[in-house]
Write a structure and sequence with these properties.
The chain has 225 residues and is of the alpha+beta class. It is built from 8 helices and 5 strands. The protein has 2 domains: 133 residues, no CATH class; 82 residues, Alpha-Beta Plaits. Strands 2-3-1-4-5 form a 5-stranded antiparallel beta sheet, covered by helices on one side.
């Protein structure tokens, strides 16, 4: 009985093995963070999340090293980690996928399959970058939210911004109007589908040249042009 209890706290790995496992996990974590940065399609990647991916790979490696092939130690760690509560909601599905990516690579490093860990990190990362850059799965962004201020006047009943929208947009739909103070200025919001997203800045420039139009902005989720 005493021998069984002692085996729970025995670590079959040496210091060199622990350090090498954590080092490989660190390198793989850096690669995962790099691939996330390259494949991220938002306005700006969260730097704290990149740091978390690297740390997660190393921490998972340590957990696997501690568990080893000891069932009692595994149950103990599961019970200890069950008290952790995560308060930050993950917005992007891509972020969840990279979290599991870092976890899987950390587990692989923990069982000292270094070749598998490095090869898998590079191969999966390259595939994700190719998919994000070639739009094989991700559709090309063409739908935006357009907002601009328009001063209504008796001389501007023809809505001079309409020809600009028809020129650059395949579809446009007015979804909201809002008065600004006690003036005749209104904030108009349109859903637009661009014919060519590369001409977004040109459309904004021409829109601002239209009579009565000011403060034009083009949004896609968290992005602004």
């Amino acid at each position: 009985m005493e021998k069984d209890l002692q085996s729970i706290f025995q670590f079959p790995t040496s210091v060199e093995e622990v350090l090498s496992s954590i080092l490989v996990a660190f390198i793989c974590g850096l690669l995962i963070a790099f691939f996330y940065k390259v494949s991220y399609r938002g306005a700006g990647y969260p730097q704290t999340f990149l740091f978390s991916l690297v740390t997660l790979a190393m921490v998972t490696t340590i957990v696997i090293l501690v568990i080893g092939n000891n069932l009692a130690r595994a149950f103990g760690l599961v019970g200890a980690m069950s008290i952790i509560r995560f308060r930050t909601a993950v917005k992007e599905t891509q972020d969840i996928m990279f979290i599991f990516f870092a976890l899987a690579i950390g587990m692989t490093c923990g069982v000292r399959l270094f070749d598998v860990a490095i090869a898998s990190t590079v191969l999966i990362g390259v595939i994700l970058v190719i998919l994000s850059k070639t739009n094989l799965i991700f559709p090309r962004r063409t739908k935006y939210l357009l907002q601009f201020h328009f001063i209504f006047d008796d001389d501007l009943k023809k809505q001079p911004y309409i020809p600009v929208l028809n020129t650059y947009c395949r579809k446009n739909r007015l979804i909201n109007t809002k008065t600004l103070g006690e003036t005749d200025m209104m904030e108009l919001s349109f859903y637009v589908e661009m014919k060519n997203p590369k001409l977004s800045n040109k459309m904004l420039s021409d829109l601002k040249k239209s009579a009565g139009v000011t403060h034009a902005h083009l949004f896609f989720e968290d992005e602004e042009l």
